[in-house]
Batch of 2 targets.
Target 1
Amino acid sequence: MSRTIAIDPVTRIEGHARVEIELDDAGKVRSSAFKVMDFRGFETVLRGMQVEMMPTVTSRICGT
Amino acid sequence: MSAKARVSIEWLSGCSGCELGIVDLHEKLLEVLDEIELVRIPILMDVKEYVAADVGILTGSIRTEHDRHAAREMRRLCKSILAFGTCPVYGGPHSSAYPHTTDELLDGAYRSNASTVTSEVPTDVPRLLAGNRPLDSEIEVDLYLPGCPPHPAFIFEALMSLVRGRAPGIGRHSVCFRCERKMVKTDRKTLRRAFEGEFDPEICFLSQGCLCFGSVTLDRCLAPCTKVGVPCFSCGGPSEPVILEPQKDVRSEVALRMSHLTQIPEAEIVAEIERQAKTHFAYAMASPVFRQKPTFLLKKWTQSPTPAGGTA
């Protein structure tokens, strides 16, 4: 019987993620997906900020 | 000795730098662990559910539907809630999404991003809320600890005060209190950026014509930046006088102070701060602290068609 295994949330990483693994009737992996649940919009946020701020603010994209 | 206090940690939209801040307690961490038991901390433990605890620590801001759900669950199960870091207190660095719509942000990241292969916005992920918000827009908060991240000295005091049920013995100074540069009067006539020319490491940035927001920023950092030649960008959020007094506004306060220290006209400094608003209000732009002040024009300033030069 086909089934889906979900690991939600994935722990001991930085941030929020979910892993989904689909198995077919024989128990073989049909597909797998890694889903990132975070979104803060840094691509747009950084536009218009002073260039000298980039080292301090981009280090806050990921703090680990 | 009584039983250890149960501490549960959850992160919302943030960077996990605050969790690293806890590790930065170093030897003090052993002292903390004598009094607390970590029952949930996603970066270290595989506990997926929300669990009952004496102290709930939340890092990150409210940005997605999941953040809202997580905050409510933590409030329901924890006796007291600590807003840990600038994100839950004021919104954090991604607060500067304030002038943009959520759709603009998604467009910038997925649809029209030159370095992204896909042109589709991800589905089956938590829905984004209309804007980035501090934690207390959603749940009641018992203790606020801004700082990006807060210095371990403040983390230690905040944790111990919550665990021992006493008021935290934390200073209410601005960043200037810890900065060793001297404020002196100079005949400086023009503004300059931190990368323009040589700066005297002993003298205040304002005296030397460079914008620095240390005087209107709460000290939760012990002023590491100005010690290494970087002006304060206010990552800890506004100082107490700015929070408490309606007339005090970071823009006019800095401009007045700088114009007294130099020969630069106050109006010129005000205009420059407005041009650089996205930089200097970045971390706390989402906070209602600024809505009742002249800075309520933040959206207008940051959408100005003539941004300051040297933008990223």
Target 2
Amino acid sequence: MGFSFDIAHLLAGLMVLTSLLLLYQDRIGALLNVLRLHGLVLALALAWQAHLQSASDLFLAATIALVVKALVIPGALERLVERLAIHRLIETVGGIGPTMLGGIALVALSLRVMLPITAAADAVSRQDIALALSVVLIGLLIMVTRRNAVGQVAGFLSLDNGIDLAAGGARGMPLVVELSVAVSVLIAFIVIGIFLFRIRERFDTVDLAALEEFRGERR
Amino acid sequence: MIALGALIAVLAVPLGGAALLALLADYRLTARLNILFSLVAFLFSLSFLFRRPPPGPLFMIDDLNVVFIVLNTFVGFTTSLFSAGYIGHELETGRLTPATLRFYHAMYQLMLFGMNLALVAANIGVMWAAVELATLSTVMMVGIYRTHEAIEAAWKYFILGSVGIALALFGTILVYLAARPVVGEGNAGMIWTVLLAHARGFDPALLDTAFVFLLLGYGTKVGLVPMHAWLPDAHAEGPTPISAVLSGLLLNVALYALLRFKILLAACPGAIAPGPLMVALGLVSALLAAFMLYRRRDIKRLFAYSSIEQMGIIVFAFGMAGPLGNLAGLLQMAMHSLTKSAIFFSVGHVAQAKGTQRMEEMGGLTESHPLLGWTLVAGVVAIAGLPPFGIFTSEFLVVSSSFARVPLLAAAVVLALLVAFGALFVRLGGIAFGPVRGEVGPVRASSFPIFAHLLLVLAAGLWLPPPLISWFRHAAALLG
């Protein structure tokens, strides 16, 4: 029993580590590779949860995570980057040091917040939820520190992976949620893809700084 | 059986309509079909006033959401009427093409489907997915003009909306976690009626944390400060019919989701009172938006900020709770939906006649376009909270009910209302009266939707029929 719990925690902890890895990538290629790793670890964590809870629907969720989040989406983003000849470097806001410290603080915060209040829940969901929250928060941090559309999309996907991890850790959570999450990410990706094309078509860059000139707030 | 059939029709008509409209190419036909589908959905929703299906594991209709559904399908219908006139002009000026219109009409029905589903869903997971669907379809429509500004607005709306919706999902998962020890694993832990019946035994701390995420998540979609940044851009850069449904409907749907969770929290004795959080966020939104009204140059942005201010007041009223506070909130929400969409209908035609949305290039509307000018004046008078319109009644209720309990908060609300009032009338004076400025283009306004909305708001201000009052009261009682 103890061993299986350790594996669950190991995988969830690996997701947090991968999130922290995502946080300091400043080249698009490396960022997408880490995103693949993130999806892969998520698929493993979900599969392990499926095994622990002997829930067959979670195996399906794990397969969806593997195919969509580890393979299809990063692959599609990579092709997009190639086809559009997007600049390979991502401009980040704030240096790597402060950002990493911020990420660590977020992990501490989520453990501090979630562990005491989930004392009544069983040990697996308890720690999984706490770690999932830190993945979600780091995903937000990635989004605010990237000026590049692809970087923001990567941040959003890692945030969504964190939510999948939480849903997988909640024992007996109905499949409705996992499916809707997977489907919505797919839709979201299509939307984003279209927007990336449109942004490119209009501005010849996917750097969001170019968009900011067109903010209509002063009107 | 009949009631269940009507419920399915309210969902199936827009969904089937979306599929059909995506296949048809002739825009005149699709515009008419769009109106027809919206009308049919509205008529079916009216049947809920008389006969409701029993709550099931998938759908439920009670006194609270029936208000929202009828309002939703009604404004959906009138906006489709307005849209049919509006797009004719957009085609002539070349801002839209027949191909984009096909997409536009399909998305319009898909959005109505998403909102109806969110309102009738009995499962918190389904409700979440439906709000997401409605958001995605509006994102597509905000970006439809493909100008620089429209793409920037759609991107911002998309990113902020997705983050908000992701946080709401995290909150939903936490609610399930809180429910699991009490109601057991599986679907039961996500169904409203089951959750509410067992809320007493939920872990309060977990529920508190869940509510914070839900408030931030759905609050982004309500347009609460500081998560409101997407709202003015999305209103200003998209087609005007979409501005009308965003302000009139989508904000309400997100608010409805929030209210449901508020009821859940109120049923759990150990949980924090959600009221003060909502009061604080609502008041900050109302005050900030009221002051921001003064610096607007773009007419659609002006009314978008006014929506933030109004939603702030509504959230404040629901936060104050109590029978009167809830009643005021519900009434204000219904009145705001009707008035604000009527204003956007007028503004849409005004912007088409003037060929711009910049207010400095507009003037003397009551002289150059008397019908449009005066309906705009009437709309602004109504939204500013002057009698005899219905918003006066509801704002009076908000202020008086909170004055009886916390006079200081009531004073803050009055300040927000007065500041907004001043800003709206300064702007209105320039647009509607004085010498005629700017282009004076012809306009074929479809005035029926504007008049229908304004007359309803006027009627509500003069006399609310007793059955309507008792119905609002009952819904307010549900909110605790």
